[in-house]
Specification:
Elements (H helix, E strand, L loop, with lengths): L1 H12 L23 H7 L8 E6 L2 E2 L3 E4 L2 E3 L1 H12 L3 E6 L5 H7 L5 E7 L2 H4 L3 E2 L4 E10 L10 H4 L6 E5 L3 H9 L4 E5 L2 H9 L5 E5 H10 L4 E17 L4 H16 L2 H8 L4
Parallel strand pairs: 1-5, 1-6, 9-10, 9-11
Antiparallel strand pairs: 2-3, 3-4, 6-12, 7-12, 8-11, 8-12
Length: about 280
């Protein structure tokens, strides 16, 4: 399953396949951390707090980042823990609104890196640098199961009307997709993905647009009376955002990504979170 995903990413993006997918399973992370502050200085990267990798995330995007019983879970956050461990750093997670992650990384004073299923886009690349990508995703349209008016066959016209409300996560590629494809509709932005699904439940929206993996997870487990009616292949690459003034940190993270890919932790992580 994972090898197939990696191959698709390589073919689609002409990237070095084995460097693209990365991950780790939290407590199962390889115990490779042996760096010292002197090592970090020699590596040439800077950190918001010495000896600590401070990451910005928005923990409302299952299966990539979310909270469960007061603990951080998800592919991206296990990945962050594995990278921090490999670099010999402590990990500090800052849970914030999604649309503040990239600006926070760009500032150089809030977060060293952004882990949040962040798609590489031209607009974001003006603010931050990105590591090797680790996953490819698409967009999905979700409605209530009892909504017979919007279907896979008519969604383009049915949702592109002035009386239609579409829930989206603020600052996401789903918001950009909906603006471009349903210009007549009224977009209703929310700070996180879970709120979009809840809005659909409470009739605040006719449909929602979000990424494929998130839609699959939440309709299967948390919002079972909602359904994915259409998948739109957009080939979005997820990556880790790093400050433009910190190229050596990007280099160090990429080296960790390569190591974690080669030792098989990506397969374990994808299986752990049922990411396809």
């Amino acid at each position: 399953m994972k090898t197939k995903k990696l191959g698709a990413l390589t073919a689609a993006c002409a990237m070095v396949g084995a460097l693209a997918l990365v991950g780790c399973g939290g407590a199962d992370a390889p115990q490779a951390g042996s760096s010292t502050d002197a090592d970090q200085s020699k590596a040439g990267y800077t950190l918001v707090s010495e000896g600590t990798l401070t990451v910005g995330t928005s923990a409302e995007y299952e299966p990539f980042e979310y909270m469960e019983n007061g603990e951080y879970k998800g592919f991206d956050l296990d990945l962050a823990a594995a990278i921090a461990d490999d670099l010999g750093l402590e990990l500090k997670i800052e849970n914030v609104d999604f649309d503040t992650i990239v600006p926070g990384v760009a500032s150089g004073t809030k977060y060293d890196a952004g882990f949040g299923a962040i798609t590489i886009t031209p607009k974001r690349k003006k603010q931050v640098d990105f590591t090797d990508s680790y996953y490819m995703d698409d967009q999905a349209i979700v409605t209530m199961k009892d909504n017979a008016e919007v279907t896979a066959e008519n969604y383009e016209d049915a949702l592109n009307a002035k009386d239609v409300k579409i829930a989206v996560q603020s600052g996401s590629t789903a918001e950009s997709f909906a603006k471009e494809n349903f210009p007549k509709a009224q977009l209703v932005p929310f700070k996180n993905a879970t709120d979009c699904f809840a809005a659909l439940q409470s009739n605040q929206a006719t449909a929602l647009v979000t990424n494929r993996s998130v839609a699959a997870q939440l309709t299967a487990e948390s919002f079972t009376n909602e359904q994915v009616i259409k998948l739109i292949p957009t080939g979005e690459e997820y990556s880790i955002a790093v400050g433009k003034e910190n190229p050596e940190l990007k280099k160090a993270i990429n080296a960790s990504l390569k190591k974690l890919t080669e030792d098989g932790t990506v397969d374990a992580l994808m299986e752990k979170y049922n990411i396809k």
